[in-house]
Amino acid sequence: MADLMEYKCPCCGGAIRFDSANQKMKCPYCNTTFEMDALKSYDDVLKEEQPSEMDWQTSTEEFQPGECDDMMTYNCNSCGGEIVGDANLAATSCPYCGNPVIMTGQLSGTLRPDYVIPFKLDKKAAKEALQNHIKGKPLVPKIFKDENHIDEIKGIYVPFWLFDADVEANIRYRATKKRRAGSDSNYDYFETNHYLVMRQGTISFDHVPVDASSKMADDLMESIEPFDFNDAVDFQTAYLAGYLADKYDVDKETTLTRANQRIKESTESAFAATMTGFESVKTENCSIRLLKGQAKYALFPVWLLNTSWNGNKYTFAMNGQTGKFVGHLPADKGAYLKWFFGLTAIATAVLFGLYWLYYLI
To answer: What is the pTM of this model?
Structure first.
């Protein structure tokens, strides 16, 4: 005996059956009707769908003997940060927490970056960006305006994993269109048509960055993007002279989750932009496959200022290539109260003056 085929309603998921009155399939739950050929095509699509495959090929190399003879490693006993600087670097403070760091030894046995984007903007530009960020904000605590904290801005090369891939995507949408079907003295009637829409294509991604430092907040680093990879050059230790460099402590396998998420979200957004002319659109299935996925290691230039106030840590960052500046500023409650009562006093004086002016007139 042949197996009975049961179709699920694409609209509500209920089991549908043949309606002899109109010679179509009908859902008894939502009263939607379907042509048999349409349901057969829908069932074929579901059978052919495949799960997403997002596998990467990664390859890196270590520094060659003698290449980093002039580079030293420094360790922060407070936050555990390990940074790299040249041999001429004097006593310095940790770019992440501001505490003193100590030299621990010569750089060795570390993965060699594939690329570096050299600093384009100097410390003076970073100071001006911070001042502009603070300017016009009367409630900012004085500590953020003091020159001694501005002088603590440090240039650091932050490690990133960069992901390149061609993405082949198959996305299935459920879409609807509504049209007016008539009316009577009590009601307006509308007909809703449901559509199964398929989108298939390939999209390329180049140098999708993911922060490789656990000490740097991912949202902070993503906020100063984008970096222009056209300025990237093959790595040479000479570019690190005069700056600090963070050693990556998040391996590429760990960052794959974030890379896949960014690529998936961008792919879905690009494909969804083609779904125009519908009343509503809902993604029912998304299958993404990576083609020629590769990961590289790079250092990007960032100016950092870390400071603390009322037991909280505040980090400001500026893209050392483009100048984009980000960071949250706290509000001084004492300054707020002075500002509030001062504003209240001014408002009271104005009202009092208007009151007497009224009676003088």
So the answer is: 0.69
The residue type of 125 is: A
Q: Per-residue pLDDT averaged across 170-183, rounded?
A: 88
Looking at the structure, tell me whether residues 8 and 111 fall in a common domain: no
Strand partners, 85: 72
Q: How many helices (H) and strands (E) does the chain have?
A: 6, 18
Whether 163 contacts 205, CB under 8 Å: yes
Number of structural domains, the chain?
Answer: 3
- What does the pLDDT read at residue 83? 74
Q: How many Cβ atoms are within 10 Å of 293's Cβ, its own excluded?
A: 22
Q: Is residue 137 part of a domain?
A: yes
Q: In angstroms, rounded to a whole number, what is the distance separating the alpha carbons of residues 345 and 339?
A: 10
The DSSP annotation for 64-85 comes to: PTTTTTTEEEEEETTT--EEEE
Kindly state whether residue 42 falls inside one of the protein's structural domains. yes
Taking every pair of C-alpha atoms in the chain, what is the biggest distance, in angstroms? Answer: 104
Q: How large is the average pLDDT for residues 283-311?
A: 86
CA-to-CA separations, 160 to 153, 203, 220, 256, 285, in angstroms, rounded? 21, 22, 13, 12, 31
In angstroms, the first-to-last Cα distance of the chain is 103
β-strand partners of 24: 19
Q: From CA 244, how far away is CA 213, in angstroms rounded?
A: 14
Say how far apart CA 154 and CA 120 lie, in whole Å: 14
What is the extent of the structural domain holding 5? 1-48
Nearest to 281 by CA among 194, 180, 347, 346: 194
Report the C-alpha gap between 10 and 21 in whole angstroms.
21
Written as one letter, the residue type at 345 is A
8 Å CB contact between 293 and 163:
yes
Of the pLDDT bands very low, low, confident and very high (cuts 50, 70, 90), residue 94 is confident
C-beta separation of 240 from 157 below 8 A: yes
Q: Mind listing the pLDDT tens digit for each residue in 81-93?
A: 777 766 555 456 7
Distance between CA atoms of 229 and 220, rounded to whole angstroms? 19
